Amino acid sequence: MNQILSQDEVDALLKGLDKGEIETEQKGIESDLDYQLYDWNTQGRNLKGDMPLLGMINERFAGTLKNSLSASLRRLVEVDARNLELIKFEEFQRALPIPTSLHLFKMEPLKGTGMLVLESRLVFNLLEAYLGGSGTDSTKVEGRDFTAIEKKIIGKIVSIVLENMTQAWAETFPLKATFVRSETNALAVNVVHPTEFLVSVKMEVEFNKPIGHIIVCIPYASIQPIREKLSGGFQEEDEDVDRGWMERLQKELKSVPVMMSVDLGRTHLSVREFLNMKEGDILVLENDPRKDLTAKVEGQPKFAGIAGKYGNRKVFKVERILNPSSTVGT
Question: How confident is the prediction for the chain on average, in pLDDT?
Fold first, then answer.
């Protein structure tokens, strides 16, 4: 049986520890150990830097969704992918008002459940637009559930969003977003543990002015199996496609109109001199008339030459090319 220390012995022991009279064994991390400090609160915060293709997917998503909503509403709709961030699920839940148009979806073949959130303000503005209104009226939307007719129109909007999400991912990964169910209370939804992270993209929708946001959330753990794909650049099997795309782009660029200008000369005037100018005044330019003039293309110096006249038209004769290595061949 172990001997039990008296209170006086315990006090003496603690006193000795405080004064350093009693040596204690300390085991720390060995200096030659290979390790890295990890901050769980900032896990993957720089998503665009860590997974650049994820940002490209969301830009495509916003672009195709803009076209689909515009066609469905028969009016111009702007959709802008604003924020791509990592957020804890519990923080996300607390930030959503009640009621919220929240929709769960599967992301086959990835595991887990994603969330699509339509802000209440956006929902009512879209409903008004579908029914022939302006879709830009300010309406207080908290405090009531959606009616059967409203839910039917919301279902149509959700289908459009998920179809465009699938389309946006297709070029990078064959993700298929499939609707599961709808909720109005975010606190009743538990797609991940409250402390786990969600990848959240917020898109602003506009009818001439902002009318609300669409938020798409995917569990961070769900995209881990394809993190390397989202972090990388072009894949080897796509090289031929990319080369063909580059050739087409170069061909199209050659037909793009550009502005070319020739500076005959410049000078500096004070405001007083400018206000006192009258017909017949002569301005002394800084350019030497014996030297070549500079021709600029889109503001960049490209050619040197001399000005002249051909028939009734002023002309510029190219004497030499400036920075020939940066000039596209004709």
Answer: 80
